[in-house]
Specification:
about 180 residues, alpha/beta, Rossmann fold, 5 helices, 8 strands
Length: about 180
């Protein structure tokens, strides 16, 4: 079973990510039992069926914005944001918008080209689950990556995980 980092812990991941193969349609794709993340097009084509399952989430491709699922958020078990390449940062904005503008409090998962050196940035933007490509990291490497999330104990900038910048959080003494 694949492993993910969820809420700063390494856990086995039962959620399957569904992708459309060439020639498959959103209406006709076979959906396995168990917790799923489906592409936005599949959710749009089969929302009533999928919402009734209660264990289905949607993943957004890099060009699909948070507004595409804003009205559906209460019915989703999870939201995934796909990073097609480590150089594509659009997913960070999508995550921040889901947490701040749309008030999403459920599982927010980074999927795709999710790399260790960016784990801190994912968390700061609101992701609580990091799903690196299966087989990319050994268990030891995941443990080291998890430990690296604590490398920066007091970030200067405000972000989703701590909206106030350091200068607003700092305690200053009064001059005598």
């Amino acid at each position: 079973m694949a492993k993910v980092i969820r809420n700063r812990s390494i856990v086995d991941d039962a959620r399957q990510t569904v992708r459309l193969a060439e020639g498959e349609t959103p209406e006709g794709v076979a959906l396995p039992a168990g917790p799923l993340l489906v592409p936005l097009a599949v959710w749009q084509a089969r929302a009533a069926e999928l919402a009734a399952r209660g264990d289905v989430g949607v993943w957004l491709a890099a060009g699909e914005g948070a507004e595409a699922i804003a009205a559906e958020l209460p019915r989703l078990a999870a939201v995934g944001v796909h990073f097609p390449a480590f150089t594509d940062g659009r997913g960070y904005s999508t995550a921040a918008l889901l947490r701040t503008r749309y008030g999403y409090t459920g599982e927010l998962r980074a999927i795709g080209d999710v790399l260790r050196d960016q784990f801190q940035a994912y968390v700061r933007c609101g992701f609580d689950t990091l799903q690196p490509p299966e087989g990319r990291y050994s268990d030891e490497q995941l443990q080291a990556a998890l430990a690296s999330l604590s490398d920066i104990s007091t970030p200067y900038q405000g972000a989703v995980d701590e909206p106030r910048p350091l200068w607003l959080r700092a305690q200053r003494g009064v001059a005598a």
